[in-house]
Amino acid sequence: MEDEEKKDYEFKIITLGNPGVGKTSIIKRYVHNEFSDDQISTLGIEFSFKDEIINGQNIKLSVIDTGGQEKYKSMSASYFRYADVVLFVFDWSIEDSFKDMKDWIKHFEDNNNGKRIKKKYLIGNKNDLEKKVNQSEIDAFTKENNLDFMSTSAKEGDQINELFRVIATNLYDYIMQKKDIKKTTSQVSINIGPNNKKNGQNSKCC
Prior knowledge:
By secondary structure, this protein is an alpha/beta fold.
C-alpha cells in the first residue's frame, strides 16, 4: 500500500498578464534563482516544475507560463481548464497593466469551462520600481474579485519563494480538507432497524 506520508500531489499554476509584466522572470527566479534584464517575452506556452515539501507531503508545482500577446490568447486559453491556481500579474510601474487585469480575469473565466479554481492571486511585480498603482485600488479590486494579493520583485527576488510557498501551503490545506471530507463521508452509515421500512417510508418513531 502506498505510504500516504510520501505521496506526491501535483498541481498546475498558470500565469496571466500583459507582455513585459515579469511572468517569465517570476518563474525563472523561483525555479532556477535566475534573473535577466534582457528576458525575452514568452512565445506561446512554457512549462516549469518545482517541488515543495509541506508537512511531509510532496507538493509538485507545474507552472505554466503564457505569452501575453493577443495572438497567443487562444493558445493559452486551452490550458485554463487544467489550472488549479491562477496568478494574474501586473507591473507596479505601469498603471495600464493593472487596469487590464479586469480583462484578463474575464478572459480566464470565459475559457476555463466552469472549473472551480482552488486559489486565485493578484501579483504586483517589479515592486523595486516606482509604483504607479494605489494600494487602495488593489484592495478594492482583490475584494471584488476574490483574489489574494502579493507584491513581488523578480529582479530582487523579493517575496518570490514566499509566494510559491504560500501557494503550496494553501494546496496542502486543500488536500487535508478533502481528506477530512472523505473520512467523514466514509464514516456515515445508514442503519435499517426493525422499525425501518425498506420501501422508503418513514420509520416508526418512538
